[in-house]
Specification:
By secondary structure, this protein is α/β, with parallel strands linked by helices. Helices cover 36% and strands 22% of the residues. It binds zinc ion.
Length: 468
Amino acid sequence: MKIDPISKCFVAAACALLLTAISVRADGLWKAGTAKAVITPTEKMWLAGFSNRTNPATGEKLMDLWVKGLALEDASGHRAVILTADLLGIPQNVYQHVRTAIGKKFALQPDQILLCASHTHCGPVLRDALYDIYPLDQSQRNLIEKYTTQLESHMIEVVGAAIADLAPARITSGQGTTAFAVNRRNNLEPKVPDMIAAGDLKGPVDHSVPVLAVYTPDGKLKSVLFGYACHNTTLQLSEWSGDYAGFAQLALEKNHPGAQAMFFMGCGGDQNALPRHEIYLSQRYGHMLASAVEEVLVAPPHNLPPELITKMKTITLPFGTPLTVNELQTLKNDSQPPTRRWATRWLEFLQSGKTPAHDYSFPLQAWEFGGQQLLLTLGGEPVVDYANKFKQSFGAQTWVAGYCNDVMTYIPSLRVLLEDAVTKPGARWGYEGSYCFVVYGLPAKRWGENVEDLITSGAKELVGEIKK
Ligand SMILES: [Zn+2]
């Protein structure tokens, strides 16, 4: 067969392209894609979090709320997608709808999909989440339903756009630190400024700042995924806001034009940024976090080979002692409106002859990047003991994220659960291990005492599967 010069050029170019493609993979490149969508509500809905709110949102915004997607593909073609969102939490119904749709549309299994909420309390109430803590009328419930359906569509579209954007990339990992998180159980808020001045803060914390950086092959920052274990609740505004995590993302995106900054919460269930309740403080914490990320970005890069392992497990966590009619009859006259609404609802449920759930399907997930960087994720609002425990078990570099996939309530360690079993006068204790069940509307007053053991053994099994 004769090949004319033009065809020869074409064949040579095609071969060169093929060789480039092969060498790209052999050179240790991943594929990565990003996309994002604004999810700031356009209606005056109730804001999620803080049960002492008395009014819905003003409709104004301090900054936009976002859902952001990062799609990754390793050298073998194995894919995963991470969605981060400026929301209090992803309720189970939203997680299931989005996970199912993404799974069908993009051929992804549940272990390949990770949804993270920033836990801002200046975002909207979502479907079937925290309904007992607000006086929601039918019109507000309709707004919530409409918004949540739109949110689900945005999440699915962002995943599709991130996958469509997949292109060769280099990925690095690192870990920085910043110290604004304070253990809120061990340091009463009004006393914190004096305790900080005296260097006298108490209680466990996790000040690490995990950083996953995605670069184009020519070295431009395409995306940075970072985390911190601290409640994203410095602001109790009636305006929409991503709080300190929103400020951190804005600062990083300003410093790196074109890059997409994405935040995930660590095990910050018992951690607060203190002092707080001022916009300048929220901004300051955001900039402290962004600076910690920048320090990692300027350090010698730790390249991750393009190998990705994704595992997931759903474990059954039993609730503690079931509610009784007598107890609920007392609590329906409680001084706190959220308790009254919660007790009335479950009392009617029991009196109608129905049996409430006595356990919960709890999501655990583990990803390993490049055969070395472990990311372990938990649902709910885990307290910091989980991060510290898993770092001891699986290595100090382990990243532990909470508020992932399904935020159903707080996740106390056994220590916190037992501390909260009895209310102690003068202490802040009682919330993370107990009252949070009322706030989240669950049919019990706390988890069973095996909560930490079950999560620990589930995590060990998952990590064991990765290390096989
Ligand atoms: Zn919280």
